[in-house]
Amino acid sequence: MPAGASEDLLVGDSACQLPAQPAKLFMASMNATPLLNSVVAALAAVRLEAILIGNAAAAIQGAPVTTVDFDFMFRDTPVNLAKLKKFASRLEAMILRPYYPASKLYRVVNDERGLQADFRPAIHGVKSFNSLRSRASKVALGEHQLWVADLADIIASKRAADRPRDKAVLDILEATLREKKQTP
Question: What is the CA radius of gyration of the chain?
């Protein structure tokens, strides 16, 4: 077909004309840092101690993975539940309990900002909050610090959860952990 020409496509009983050149799509780079910084600032403001787990924590440690949410482990106490309510309020978000009563998951959501932060008092493969924190690292984000679970704990949790979506990233996370161990 000559340059600039178009092609007819028969769809049902109608002919549609396709452009000669495909449309160019542009995708802006995605960056969760501003949203995560606001989450960390809100955690600090209400003094809620939580440890970032899951793919977001793995990505901070260099794993080439993506996620649509932030997952945290926290202590499920009356004081922390009050802090979680204040945290949600600061982010103009609501707290959902999508799997109540089967799960103690607290989901903080603000659809306008694209925020989903899940808070769990227990995760697969991890004995306790204190044991997870003993291996976690504090990472500076913006003006605040965030506890980030050790990559080995993230791997153990995903392996113990045994869900297809967790199994799908295990090889990537394990390769990242091997590289981290080799790098001084």
Answer: 22
Alpha helices in 47-183 (DSSP H): 54-60, 78-90, 129-135, 151-161, 164-182
Token duo for residue 141: 């984000």
Rounded to whole angstroms, the Cα distance separating 94 from 157 reads: 27
Mean pLDDT, residues 64-87 taken together: 96
pLDDT at 21: 52
Q: Please name the residue ranges forming H helices in 77-136.
A: 78-90, 129-135
Q: Are 107 and 94 a contacting pair, CB within 8 Å?
A: no
How far is 179 from 103, CA to CA, in rounded Å? 35
Domain annotation for the chain: domains and CATH numbers: 33-182 (3.30.460.40)
Q: Element (H or E) spanning 41, and its range? A: helix 33-46
DSSP label at 131? H
Neighbouring-strand partners of residue 15 = 10
Statement: the pTM of the whole predicted model exceeds 0.85: no
Nearest CA among 110, 122, 81, 158 for reference residue 150: 158
Q: Is 101 strand, coil or helix?
A: coil
Q: How far apart are CA 35 and CA 51, in angstroms?
A: 16
